[in-house]
Every structure is written in C-alpha cells, then in structure tokens.
Write a structure and sequence with these properties.
Blueprint: H1 8-22, H2 34-41, H3 45-57, E1 61-64, E2 68-71, E3 85-86, H4 98-110, H5 118-121, H6 130-140, E4 152-155, H7 157-169, E5 176-179, H8 184-193, E6 197-200, E7 202-203, E8 206-207, H9 209-219, E9 223-226, H10 240-252, E10 256-260, H11 264-267, H12 274-277, E11 282-287, H13 288-291, E12 299-302, H14 306-319, H15 325-337, H16 339-362, E13 375-379, H17 386-395, E14 398-399, E15 401-402, E16 414-418, H18 425-439, H19 443-446
Parallel strand pairs: 3-14, 5-6, 5-9, 9-10, 10-11
Antiparallel strand pairs: 1-2, 4-12, 7-8, 11-12, 13-16, 15-16
InterPro entries: Aminotransferase_I/II_large (IPR004839), HTH_trans_reg/aminotransferase (IPR051446), PyrdxlP-dep_Trfase (IPR015424), PyrdxlP-dep_Trfase_major (IPR015421), Tscrpt_reg_HTH_GntR (IPR000524), WH-like_DNA-bd_sf (IPR036388), WH_DNA-bd_sf (IPR036390)
Pfam family, one: GntR
Organism: Novosphingobium humi
Length: about 450
Amino acid sequence: MAKGAAPLYLAIADAIEADIRAGALRHGDRLPPQRALADRLGIDFTTVSRAYAEARRRALVEGRVGMGTFVQASGTKSAPASGIVDLTMNFPPRMADTALTSRLWAEVAGLETTGGMDLLLRYQEVGGTRADREAGVAWLIDSLPDLAFDRLVITPGAQGALLALLTLLKHPDRPVAVEALCYPGFRSLAGHLGAALVPVAMDGDGLIPDDLAAQCARHRPALLCCTPNLHNPTTATIPLDRREAIAAIAREYDLTILEDDAYGRLAGNGLPPLAALAPERTYHIASLSKALAPALRIAYVACPDARGASRLTGALRATTSMASPLGAAIATRWIETGLAQQTLNAIRAETEARHALAHRLLGQDGLRGDPRAYHAWLPLDHGWSRGDFASRLRHAGIGVVTSDAFVIGPAPEALRIGLAAPLERAALETGLREIADLACQSPTLANLIV
C-alpha cells in the first residue's frame, strides 16, 4: 500500500475496498487485529482504528464482539449510519424465501399487460379505484366483515392518512388524546398542525381506560389516536375488555377514534378492532408498509360511513392527493393472487425467529416483546439512565432508540430495539449480545472516563 496525499486512514480503507473488488479479500475473511496491522505498517494504532471504522461506514467490514473484524461482501448487510449494527429502525425483516421474492417481482412485471402505461402516465381518482378499494376490503374482511368498498379510502401510507384525518377532524379548542408513549410520526404531525396532545397512561396491556375517562373529563379531547395491536414501542396489545371500555368511553365523551392498526394483520390475534366495536366513530388505518413492504406506501382507511369516506377523500385532495396508482395496483395484484398473505406468513416466521433470539439473550433482563412484533422494549435496571446506556452502545457500534422519541410527559428509562433492521440474524445477535453484556453491568463499572 503506497502512501499518498490522502489521509493514511482513508488510504487503508481504500486498499481494503480495492482488495475486496479484486477478489483478494472475500466475504467472511478475517482482517488482521488492529494493533497487529499497526505494528506491521509501522503506524499509530489510532490510524488503523480510524481506517477500520471508515471501512465499517462503507459497509465493507463488520466487527464481531470478541472475534474481530470480518469482510462482508457488497449487499450482504445493510450499512448502518454509525457502527456495526443499527437496531433503530422498525420495519419487516428480510424474508429468506427467494422463490416467493421472485413471484412478487413477477407479479409487478405482469402489471404491464393489465394496467399498462396508464399506471405511470395518468392521474387516477383520489381515494383509489373501485378495484383497488375492493382489494382493500378483501384484505380487511377478517377483522371488519361488514366493510363495504364505499367506506374504504386508499391513502399514501398511514402518515398520509393521519395528516388528512388530523387536518379534517381536529378541533381548534380541544386537544387530541394519545397513548403516553406515542408514535413519533403522529407527534410530529400534531406539532406541525398545532394540535395539543393529552397523554393517557399505559401499563403492560396498553392504554388504561380509567385514565382515558379521567383525561376526557379533565381536558375534553375531540380525538383519540391509539395503536391497539403490537404497540410501538412497547409491543403491548390491548385486551378485549379494555377495547370495549375504550369504545364505551368514546361514546360517552363523543370522541372520534383514529385507530392506527399498522400491525393488526401481523398480529393475527383475532381481537376485534375498535372500528368493529365503535364503527360509527372510528377511522381504522391499516398500512401495508409495516405488514408487507416499507416501499409500498399504501394504507387502507375504513371510515365510519360513505360520507366520512367522501370527506376524507376531500382532505386527501387538499393535502397529499392520490396514492400512487402503481403502488395500489401492486397491492391489489398481491392480494388477489394470495401473495400478500404468503408474504405476511414468511415475514411472521422470520420475525418469530428473531424474537426468540432476543428473548434468549435479553429475556432475563426484562425484555418485553411479542413474538410477532418487529421491535422489543427494554426497561433499564441497575441504575442505568437511557442516555448513558444508549451512548455506551453507540461507542460499541450499536444503535437503539431511547424512550424520548415516543414520550408525552416524563420519559421512562427504557429503549426500543428494532429486531428487523439487520439483514442477517448473525448481525442481530452481535447487537443483542452487546446489549445483554452491558445490561448486566452497573453504570459505574461500565464507565470508561478517567
């Protein structure tokens, strides 16, 4: 390796990349220990450390705790923004069924013979075509058997639905009730639109109806936005008796419910949605981004009636316009051919395997999680603060999300761990082992400051 004008650590990273491209280094090859390489090259250890960090940033190598640094071929693992394993994101895991993947792409290609160029070059009606809405009804039929296509509206993702609904339904003088740990996207929307939020207390079973009633009596919210299934971030699922109580409270206090059911099909628990218990006042939002594919920015919104659907369509026209006709057509094709359900089954299987790994490594540390949730919730013990714990993980190359991203009010000492972001389970295991090793230590023993 020749020394040039570029900083030496970049030259080392460039050499690693060149050797990978030339085939001299292959996926899985172990690089020399950093101190050994520094001695061999006659340079500072910190220069080699920076070089390896740069190679990790480029997703050329990965560090494995207690094992060393290994080459990873291009495309074998998602490149985290800052370190070895990114456990911050919450989306479906990569399924291993290559035959199913090929069929999904084949159905996308098949749209050329049916939808043709109109899917690319024509505007289509806001709220979705009748065929696409009927596919949405079919997708939701198990949980909402009385749903008709004229009550269903197709939106550009759940965020597009929430934006339109909050614009349409928020009251200028009344706040919005939300779970005390709230989806960050909704917090951002509320702040953007100037909607005040009232937190409702939660426990291991989710939103507490008694506190909802108390907040309604005290603050008179006009809306309730909540996630009954696989709550983000706690993974709690609201049991039937609480769902019935929430529906009754909504009627008593004239609350309109925004039911963010991004994970309902994934959960598959057979519990009736709030839209089945209080259909006259509930907008049920079922996103495909979480259930099937993040790039499929399609959500099906079941409205209380056809008039509500018409009003939502008007709000969409004024905010986000139509959902992607191509995305809606892909969703319809996958639903009609059964591929959507097969994909959901494959995603569930991989999710359950990852949850089992997380439970094995962190179950003794109080990890909370549902086997079908893409994320888990870790309350901290041994005197750790969430900030210190997350900072120590960042130094080890592990990214997690602290409770601050979700909280309305005082923040608990807890973290959300995304189980699906690493493409390979081995990378997930690396991150989870690092978390487990840190969780069993006290902050004073883990402190490296001298």
